[in-house]
Amino acid sequence: MTTTKTFLKNITQQATLLDQLPVGITVIDLEGRILYDNKTCARLVDRKPEYVGEDIHSCHQKAASVVAIDRILDDILTGRKKEVYYETERKGKTLAVTILPYKVDGKRIGAIQSIVIKRT
């Protein structure tokens, strides 16, 4: 997939910048494979470098999470929803999660997930 290769080349060049953001970022392709996780995402939700290239489901052990992931990705990747927002608890903190379609030249090629610690 040429778009995936282009993305990986560009993201590699920008990884230093993305790793400095206080926002966890995960990018997946249309098949649900993880293309990129920044260091903040790894810290917030225990993502490991070896997950890159793996199916997003490999990051989740609970059956309910897998069902939710399937529904969210289907909604985002088919265009039924422009954005999905939810909150979850992790390590005693509330995380705000947003998932958006990832587009290149107007073409949907995957999804971007951002994760921040919700401030009260």
Would you kindly provide a written description of the structure presented here, covering whatever features stand out?
The protein is α+β, with helices and mostly antiparallel strands and 120 residues long. It has one domain (2-117): PAS domain (Beta-Lactamase, 2-Layer Sandwich), CATH 3.30.450.20. Helix content is 33%, strand content 33%. The protein contains 3 helices and 5 strands. It has helices spanning 2-19, 39-45, 63-77; strands at residues 24-29, 34-37, 84-90, 93-104, 107-117. It has a 5-stranded antiparallel beta sheet with strand order 2-1-5-4-3, sandwiched between helices. The longest helix is centred in the N-terminal third of the chain and has 18 residues, at 2-19. The radius of gyration is 14 Å and the shape is globular. The protein starts with a helix and ends with a strand. The mean pLDDT is 85.
CATH topology: Beta-Lactamase
Question: Which strand order do you get reading across the main beta sheet?
Answer: 2-1-5-4-3
- The appropriate CATH architecture is 2-Layer Sandwich
Assigned CATH superfamily: PAS domain
Secondary structure: elements and pairs:
Elements: H1 2-19, E1 24-29, E2 34-37, H2 39-45, H3 63-77, E3 84-90, E4 93-104, E5 107-117
Antiparallel strand pairs: 1-2, 1-5, 3-4, 4-5
Please give a handful of descriptors for the protein shown:
120 residues; alpha+beta; Beta-Lactamase; five-stranded antiparallel sheet; 3 helices; 33% strand
